[in-house]
Structures are given as C-alpha cells and as structure tokens.
Amino acid sequence: MNHMHASAWRAATAAAGLLIVYFLTAVLSLQWATVKGAGAAVWIPAGVGMVGLLFGGIRLWPSIFIARLLAGFATGSEQPIWAELGIAAGNAAATVLGVWLLQGRGGGIPRLDSLRSMLRFLAAGALIPSALAATVGATCVVVSSDLAAADFPLVWLRWASANAASVMVITGLALAWWHERPTAGERWHLAAIVSVNTAAAFLIFHTGPDYPFRAWHIYPFLIWAALALRVVGASSVLLVVGCAAVSGVLADVGPFANIAATAISALMHVQQFLVLTASTILLLSAVADERRGKSALQKAQAELSELNRVLEERVQERSEALRRSERALLQAQKLEALGQLTGGIAHDFNNLLQTINTSFELITRQSGSPEKIEKVAVMGKRATQSAVKLTRQLLTFSRTQELESEVIELGPFLENIKDLVRTSVGSAVTLALDLERAGGVHVSTDRNQLELAIINLAVNARDAMSGGGRLEIGATDAFYRQEPDIPDGRYARIWVRDTGHGMAEDVLARAFEPFFTTKKVGSGTGLGLSMVYGLAKKSGGKAVVESAPGQGTTVSIILPRVEPAGEASSAATHAAPRSLAGVRVLLVDDEAHVRSAIAAMLAELGCHVAEAQSAAEALARIEQEHWGLIVLDHTMPGMLGAELAQRIRQQGKDTPIVLATGAANIEKLLPGDLVRVHLLRKPFSITQLHQAADLALAS
C-alpha cells in the first residue's frame, strides 16, 4: 500500500512539474507571437513537452493540454475558447505521437549515437509531430480569425518550423546528456567549446548593418563542436546559437534583421536557419559518433585478438611446462619404484626359472619312462605359461601392449576359470560364483588379460583375508547414465568381492597407482590393480574400487556390452589349420638357440626349413631361391624384421611372411600397405605357430 502511495505521489509530482514548466515556456514563447497571438519564432514548449513524456511517460499528456490552454488565457489570447481547446489538443496529440514513434513497442529512451537513430529522431520526433501540431493549430487560427485561406500555408510553415526547431535543439540536448554523460575532462572541453561558440554567435548575430557577418559564418564553430564532442557538444552549441539568433532578431540586429524588410520576415529566416542548421549539425555529429564508435570497436577487437593470442601462447607455454613436469614426476616415480619392482619381479622370475630348470634337469635324468618325462615336461610348460602371463602383466601396466580382443560370453568364461581361481586362493577361502544374471552377456576384450585380471583380484582378496573368508565373483548386465568417465549405455559389470580387512581412505585413493602396494618388499610388484585399470580403459570401460576398513573390498570391472559373434565367424575361427607338410620355409633369427627351437617346431609340422642368421643373408637367399613361407624375428641387429619385410615386398616378392615378436606396439611400426604379413607374439606354442602360418598362407 505504501508503495502504491509513493508511486501515485511521484506521478502527481511529475505531472505538476511538467505542467508548470510547459506553462512558463509557453507564456514566454507567446510573448514573441507574430501571427494573431498564435505564432512564435521558436515554440519552446514543443521540446519541453517531448522531454517530459519521454522521461515521465505518455500518461503525463494532460499536463501539456492544460498548460497550453492556461498559457493562452494568461497572455490575453484573442482566439475563441474552441480554438484554444483545439490548439491545446493539437499540441498534446503531436507530442504523444512523437514519443510513440520514437519509443516504438520496446519503450525506453532513444539513443542518438548513429546515423539511423538520428534520422529517426529528426523525422519521427521533430518533423512529423510538428506537422501535426501545425496542421491543427493553423486550421484553428485561420478559421477563428479574419485571415484568408491563402494565409494558411505561411501560418502552417511558421508553426511547424517553430515546433521542429524546439524539438531538435531541446529534446536532442536532453537525450544526448542522458546517454552520453560526459566525463569531468569532457565537461571542461565542452565548456570551452560552448564559450567560444557563445562569443562567436553573439558577435555574428548581434551586430548592425555596418559589419559584414553572415549566418553561415557560425558553421565552422558548429562543425568543430559536432566533431569534437559528439551529439552532446552539437546540441549544447545549437542551444546557444539559437538563443543568440532569436534574440538578435528581436533586438533588430544581426544578419537576419539586416536582410529582412519586416520583423516577421526576419523571424521566418531565423526559423528556417535553425531547422536546417540543427538537422545538418545533428546528423554530422551522429555520423562522427558512429565512426568514432566503430573505430573504438575495431581497436577493442584488435586489442582483444592480441590479448587472446598472448593468452593462448601463455596457456600453451604453461601446458607444455605442466606436461614436462608431469613427465619428470612420472619418471621420478618410476625410478623411485624400481627397488620395489626389482624385488617383486626377481622373486617371481626366480620361482619360474627354478621350475623350468628343475623340469629340464629331471628330463635329462629320466630313462625309459615316458610317463615320468611327460609329467615333468608338463610341469615345465606350466611354468613357462606363468612367465608369459607375468610378461603380459608388465606390458599391460606399461599400456603399450595392444589388446587381442575377442567377444567373450561372461557366464561360461567365469565358470571355466573357477577351478583356477580356487587353486590360486587356497582352501581357506570360500569361493562363490554369482552368474544368474551373466547369461547372454558378452564383452569385447582380451581373454587372457581378463583372466589374469580376475586372478590378480582374487589373489589380492585372499591376501586381505589372512584368516580365511568369503570371495564372491559375479557378472551382470547394467545400464549406466551420467556415470563419470564412460558414456551412457549398456555395460557388463564384473565384480570381485571379499570380506577382508578393507582399505583405509588414503590407501583407497592410491589403489590404481602403478607400483603401489601394501605388501612387504619382495611379495609383489604393485602392478595388479594397475593392470586391471589399464585393461578396463583400453576396452572402453573403467574400473572402480569400493572399500572401507573392516567392511571388505569390491572391485568392479565395467566393460561395454556387445552383441555375440555370428555362427559363421565362430566356425571359421575354430576351423583346423591346413597341413604344412612339404612347405619350404626360410627362418630368419639372430639368436641361435631361438632359431634352433623354432626350426624344430616347423620341422615337427612337416616343413622343409632353411635358416638365416641375419637380414642381409635372408635377402640374398630370397633373391636366389623360391620360398613358400618366411618366418622373421622382429628384433635383429642391423635391420628390424618389419624393415626386412618391407624390403622383401620392394623386391617384388609376395611370399607369405610370419613376423614373430615380443614387442608390444609392433602394429604401429608396420607400414599400412604391407600385405600378406601375419604377426605372431612370442612366446608361442607349436599350435599357435601352425595357426599363424596357415593365416599367412591363406592371405
């Protein structure tokens, strides 16, 4: 309620203020009346009323109507009451029309800082409303007086010119000061310009016929103001010049009084001068303001572009410095972890080498007992397979080994490794499988690495349950939405859950860090969880650890779910390889014992094998003889196997090639146009060698 009262009070105050100012300026203007008490050189209330409605709202129009009516009576107007009512209504309607045309539907105070906005102001705010007021006013005067109809055009022109000049100067000045708000420095500059123009204006417009001044002599000063201080300078100086010109005519001095025969004629010249001069100078100031704004914008854009360039350079420099720091930190961490790594790897490899060495020693001591020899050989082969798994674990941690992905159904997969897990964790741990929701759930990843990941997690769980406990392994289908690190979609979740002592918060935060382990030195490498994390990320998923002290640990491997492979591809995968009997094979390897072992494997498959111990020897023999298959080692002195394969193709030979290697990123080293080359990862079995040779020959 108080707010409503305050709003009503402000509206009443604004209406009263506009009525008083309009009334006083109307009385002053009517003192200069030249046509039957109804015409003036400059109708000051036109500009005052426009300012009042622009800033106070159109609802204040009754103040204009009442003030104009009272001013007519106060100055002793000879017009009948209906004519005064018509003139007052015409003034109010013209002002309302001008404000409506300037504000449009959006409302607000119009700006004058561009050529387009200035043209709109001059046309919609000054000329059109002035024409309406002049039409209504001149009609009332001519009809209510003894003026002839032929006098109507002259009365209309004077009336419209007086209104237009007032709106251009007074309203233009108010709008310019409202929007531009000159600074303290600009105000001192403006004061100097106004002072100079005032002196020049009164010198030009207040001299007698003995001085040869003309009205256009003021133009250099007006142009100076328009270019120096935009619209606010131009409108301020126009007010001073207008006052000087009108007062000079009223005093019967100046260029207009000198060239006019009557005072009415002189005032007519003043009106035309003010309208034309105000239009020209205001347009010039708007153009200058617009160009100044464009120039400032271009400068700001250039400065912004330069700032962006400098910022980008600094960001790149800091990013590069950060990358260098991260690389240095990683290197330092790896160097710091070498002690832990050496102990763990040495421990594991010593056990494997002991088993392998014992196996071969026992074989040499056996005589005439094939069963015992086979038993010992199987033991040695298992130790070799364990060494292969350990090597793959290291390569997976380094994140350089490429995944040998295949589609795996999780239910049968976990069922098949159940016995291996039970053997790894021992009888003190109760193993449970939850595979009810794993049926028909397929993922695409490396089978061996996934098996190794689950075994590692099971062993970690066993170590966390020193007095025994329950180990649960399961899989299920899941849909993740807005999950960090992975896009929305269907996934398979494999979990390994134990009832061990759990992890403290600081240990949990470092669980996936390479080389980090809570086991004593020599009991492990700290690569297990890192390998799990690397496998999950490379397969398009992620790994998550949930744990708390005394509440056990759950490690989840989340992998994208895929559709199962078709029957045709499955059949092709398990098809028996072709016989290699009689195939001439050139075996290239610089290590004599490795070369001999692989040659024996090829001979076992029925191949006729020839050996070369270097790339140069191999090239010479390939040039001279025809071969059905070439088996190359990759890491050889002088020339790598991949380079040798490329040289063979450059010689025009399309012989199938098997490239055997233990390198993790060999695919990146092979040229994309190298055909009929099949990769075989070391170490490999006779069966794997047979399959690789078959694929190379089939290509």
TrEMBL record:
Catalytic reactions of this protein: ATP + protein L-histidine = ADP + protein N-phospho-L-histidine
Domain Response regulatory: 584-697
Membrane topology field: Multi-pass membrane protein
Compartment list: Cell membrane
InterPro entries: CheY-like_superfamily (IPR011006), HATPase_C_sf (IPR036890), HATPase_dom (IPR003594), His_kinase_dom (IPR005467), HisK_dim/P_dom (IPR003661), HisK_dim/P_sf (IPR036097), MASE1 (IPR007895), Sig_transdc_His_kin-like_C (IPR004358)
EC primary class: transferase
Ranges of residues in domain Histidine kinase: 344-563
A Pfam family: Response_reg
Major localization listed first in the record, in broad terms: membrane
UniProt protein name: histidine kinase
